[in-house]
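STRUCTURE:
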């Protein structure tokens, strides 16, 4: 079973939405900084409003580069790193994420960037580095969604064939956030691999209570009837 099919969570409880809040609530300063804020907001809207993710990311990349020409803010670099990741430009993405980390003093933003960087490392096969980040994020006071780190870690364990480790991480995720649908669903997938039909039924039942039209859980539940 390939747990990479849906990727890791760069945007759950949404990193981009966090940047949108930062961008739209910030008071623009004069001259270059004000112009940079305008381009930053345009980049965010490019992604949020485009029906085609790749096309939206390409447009947004052009706007964020213009923002950076006028002001070098960590949230601008963070957004650029995310866009480069989405566009498959992994080496450039890592470089830009590290640039954002070098200049940010905001603990919340730093934690979000670290989650994205761990996602990037996982896609590159740098599993130990990714796992270390997610382990640290679950107890980072600045990271607001530790359940996301645990789901990412669980998926990474599953991809490596460590189903026991995957179940531990996913169980921790549902303990932190009992209504987190993805945590329950992925735990059901892992349980099926372990032959634990009772857990599959339990977790699918929770998913379908929270989201009755969840197709994956519906299909999985039928397999264990």
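SEQUENCE:
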């Amino acid at each position: 079973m390939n747990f990479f099919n849906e990727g890791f969570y760069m945007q759950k409880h949404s990193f981009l939405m966090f940047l949108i809040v930062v961008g739209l609530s910030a008071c623009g300063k004069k001259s270059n900084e004000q112009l940079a804020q305008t381009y930053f907001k345009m980049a965010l809207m490019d992604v949020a409003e485009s029906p085609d993710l790749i096309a939206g990311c390409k447009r947004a990349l052009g706007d964020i580069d213009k923002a950076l020409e006028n002001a070098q803010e960590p949230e601008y670099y963070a957004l650029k790193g995310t866009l480069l990741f989405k566009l498959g430009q992994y080496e450039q993405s890592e470089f830009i994420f590290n640039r954002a980390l070098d200049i940010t003093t905001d603990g919340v933003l730093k934690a979000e960037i670290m989650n994205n960087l761990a996602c990037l490392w996982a896609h590159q096969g740098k599993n130990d580095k990714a796992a270390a980040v997610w382990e640290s994020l679950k107890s980072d006071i600045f990271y607001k969604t530790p359940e996301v780190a645990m789901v990412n870690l669980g998926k990474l364990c599953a991809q490596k064939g460590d189903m026991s480790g995957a179940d531990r991480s996913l169980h921790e995720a549902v303990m932190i956030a009992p209504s987190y649908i993805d945590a329950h669903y992925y735990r059901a997938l892992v349980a099926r691999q372990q032959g634990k039909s009772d857990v599959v039924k339990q977790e699918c039942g929770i998913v379908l209570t929270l989201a009755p039209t969840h197709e994956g859980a519906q299909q999985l539940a039928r397999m264990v009837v």
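REMARK: Confidence is low (pLDDT under 50) at residues 1-6.
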